[in-house]
Design a protein that fits this description.
37% helix, globular
Length: 110
C-alpha cells in the first residue's frame, strides 16, 4: 500500500480489517496482492477470536497464547508466523522506544 500524504498508520491498519474503511478514499483498493492475503488472514483471525475467544482458524498459522513468549508476527504474502518475543523486540527496536525520553525520528521533508 502506498503511504499517501496524511494517511496515518492506524488508518492503513483499519483498511486491512474493514475493507469499506476509507473516509472517501478506498485504502483497501491500494493493498498489494500480498497485503490482501494478510488482510484475509487478519479478518479470519478476528472472526475466530470473536466466535471462540482465540484467534485459531483452519488453514491459518497457529497463534499461540502470549504465555509461550511467542508472538504472531503479521506479514504479507502468507508469511505470518510466530517469533520469540525477543526477536520482536529487536525488530521493532523496543529497547529504544522503552527508554525514558524516546522520541520518534524526524521525518524527511518530501
Amino acid at each position: 500500500m502506498s503511504r499517501g500524504a496524511g494517511v496515518s498508520s492506524a488508518a492503513r491498519t483499519l483498511a486491512y480489517l474493514w475493507p469499506s474503511f476509507g473516509n472517501g478514499t478506498s485504502l483497501y483498493d491500494q493493498l498489494t496482492p500480498a497485503q490482501l492475503q494478510l488482510s484475509h488472514q487478519m479478518i479470519v483471525w478476528c472472526g475466530a477470536f470473536t466466535r471462540l475467544g482465540a484467534p485459531q482458524a483452519p488453514g491459518q498459522p497457529f497463534w499461540p497464547a502470549y504465555t509461550s513468549r511467542q508472538l504472531m508476527s503479521l506479514r504479507p504474502g502468507g508469511q505470518s508466523r510466530t517469533i520469540p518475543a525477543a526477536t520482536f523486540a529487536a525488530e521493532h527496536q523496543c529497547g529504544f522506544w522503552n527508554a525514558p525520553g524516546a522520541q520518534a525520528p524526524a521525518r524527511a521533508a518530501s
